[in-house]
Amino acid sequence: MLGLLLAPAASAANEKVILQLKWFHQFQFAGYYAAVEKGFYAEEGLSVEIRERDPAVPPSDVVLSGNAQFGIADTSLILQRLQGKPVVVIAAIFQHSALVLISLKESGIISPLELKDKRVMYQRNVDDAALTAIFTEFGLKAKDIQHVPHNFKDDALLTPGIDAMSAYLTDQTFFYKKNNNDINIISPASYGIDFYGDMLFTSEHYLKNNPETVTAFRRASLKGWQYALANPGEVIGWIKARYQSQKPRDQLFYEAKMTQRMIQPELIELGHINNNRFNYIVNTYKQLGMATAESDLAGINYRDYISSSPTESKWPLIIQVSLAISIALIALFFGINRRLKTLVNERTQELEASKQELQKLSNTDPLTGLNNRRSLDKFLEQELLSVTRYNNPLSVAVFDIDHFKRINDNLGHNVGDQILISLAKLISNNVRAADMFGRWGGEEFLLICPQTALAGTTRLAELLRKAIATHDFEIPLPIHCSFGVAQLHPGETAKHLFSRADHALYEAKQAGRNLVVTATKTSQGHTKTDNSVSYKAQVIPMQKDE
Predict the structure, then answer these.
(1) What gap in Å lies between CA 465 and CA 154, rounded to an integer?
(2) 3-class DSSP string for 64-124
(3) Domain count, the chain
(4) Which residues have C-beta within 8 Å of that of residue 527, sequence separation ≥ 6?
(5) Sign of dihedral through CA atoms 179, 181, 182, 186?
(6) 395 Cβ partners below 8 Å, 6+ apart?
């Protein structure tokens, strides 16, 4: 069924509007279901029809054609606005895009570089902003990838001939974990492309003619999202019973948990639109050549229309005029400079707050609150410059949780996530202020130790290993980690440094796990056929605590 009329409590006099989803019924749209079921739309005088996605027609085309008044889409809306399409964002719901690419573990496709000449299943030119940006970032043109139209099946990656496919972190990845299919996840955010996810939007024409309806719809929708995030079990019951979702309940609960992370209501006000973040996305598009230098984003934010709408009450205008006169009189008597200084300070504080908010979102891992891969890369790049200039030592330790898949399989992903959070707190409390610690990806972490030689970081790694092994994580399975440690050598790149540390981590795994292994430079490599410099591993033995 393509659409469902779901507002039984609404009166016949309520204004009828249509919301066009970007996908099929699932927890991704929980807030809108809650606004219907709890009567929030009806309280605003609205009767709302929620329509599932028609794969053949993008939501923006449906709204701009007048076949729906509201829609859900990602930051492709910003690109469309730059291209002259009159779309207007009403609310930013997902602070991060959940759209990623996945490949089977055995494929060896772990980054965009391996996608060249591969068969990749995704929706081209439809809500693919983040994917298009990462393709462009790595110099991949349309001809470099064999595009396969998406069949919208969770198990599509298991189809012979499909090398990678687009998926949602909040949803499809659960299918593969549940069925014990190991996958690689290529996330645009890991490469500095951190865009908004789902955004509520309308057309400029509809907004100009119906500003009160738009603001009413926005209020009720955000109220619905507040309810849905606080009551996921109840909403999942509606999704299964009233919306006939084909997703199993455990997958919907997983999606609910991941959706909370994408929205981040504890950090950002629901629906908040940050113009500075819009400008960041615009600059990314322009730097990647996806938009022209002269293209303009003006008109993308609904507030630009609401504040100047002639149909709204004139009291705000009267108040503004009175305020302006008062300010002018005060300026005459007390000097305009003081007021200007205050206004400048206030605006500076607002801009700084927005800047800090954007930096925090783009540099923080949503689950653990640690530095993410982008932040770690940036820090390591800066430290390499310092090493070159001052000849200071620099070393790193990469480590991960041994047999982490066993924890997820036996105790569930919720427990696995809690282990990652607890481990992050434990390590954060045991590293130095000068060290940089973060989540590299999955269950893997990276510790960067400036002005520290190999021996010092190795000792620290052993202390951390012991702290982890003796910590009570309150589960029936043992928790311990394997470490690989390496020191930067003259002329070495960050990529090579990490590769050596990663190889040492592999050696620790092969040697029995719960070990610290160091990579040291030697003129005698593992093979006698190569006279070039290579590396060998040294094992730091376990203490008696194991």
Answers:
(1) 38
(2) HCCCCCEEEECCHHHHHHHCCCCEEEEEECCCCCCEEEEEEHHHCCCCHHHHCCCEEECCC
(3) 4
(4) 534
(5) negative
(6) 449, 452, 453, 454, 456, 457, 485, 486, 487, 488
Asked if residue 485 belongs to a domain, the reply is yes
Q: Is the dihedral of CA 241, 243, 244, 247 positive or negative?
A: negative
Name the one residue in this structure whose structure tokens are 């093979």.
527
Average pLDDT estimate for 409-428:
91
294: its two tokens: 């002269």
CA-nearest of 57, 55, 87, 92 to 70 is 87
Domain extent at residue 321: 313-360
Please tell me the distance from the alpha carbon of residue 543 to that of residue 118, in angstroms, as a whole number: 47
The pLDDT tens digits for 501-521 are: 999 999 999 999 999 999 975
d(CA 41, CA 217): 7
Give pLDDT tens digits for 331-354. Answer: 555 555 555 556 666 666 655 655
In a domain, 125, yes or no: yes
pLDDT digits (tens, 9 = 90+) for 207-244: 999 999 999 999 999 999 999 999 999 999 999 999 99
In the DSSP assignment, the letter for residue 157 is G
**Alpha carbons 79 and 74: distance in angstroms, whole number:** 10
DSSP secondary structure string for all residues of 271-331: B---HHHHHHHHHHHHHTTSS-TT---TT-BTHHHHTT-TTS-SHHHHHHHHHHHHHHHHH
Q: What is the DSSP string of 451-500?
A: T--HHHHHHHHHHHHHHHHHS--SSSS---EEEEEEE--TT--HHHHHHH
CATH number, domain of 137, equals 3.40.190.10
Q: Which amino acid is at 105?
A: K
Q: What is the rounded distance in angstroms from the CA atom of residue 77 to the CA atom of residue 87?
A: 7
User: Using one digit for the tens of pLDDT, what is the confidence trace for 290-319?
Assistant: 888 888 899 999 999 985 444 444 555 555
Residue 529 — very low, low, confident or very high, per pLDDT cuts 50/70/90? very low
Residues 234 and 135 placed together within one structural domain of the fold? no
Distance CA(64)–CA(83), nearest Å, equals 14
Structural tokens at position 241: 């019973």
Residue 292 lies in a domain: no
Interatomic CA distance for residues 519 and 317, integer angstroms: 69
Mean pLDDT of the chain: 84
Chain centroid to CA 268: 14
Is the pLDDT score of 328 beyond 90?
no
Same domain, 534 and 392: yes
| Residues acting as catalytic residues | 443
The pTM of this model reads 0.60
**Residue 412: which residues within 8 A CB-CB, separation 6 or more?**
none
Per-residue confidence (pLDDT) for residue 49, from 0 to 100: 97
Q: Is 250 helix (H, G, I), strand (E, B) or coil?
A: helix
Residue 141 is encoded by which pair of tokens?
Answer: 């043109």
Please give the DSSP secondary-structure letter assigned to residue 371: B
Tell which phi-psi region holds residue 180, choosing left (phi > 0), alpha (psi between -120 and 50) or beta: left
Same domain, 111 and 76: no
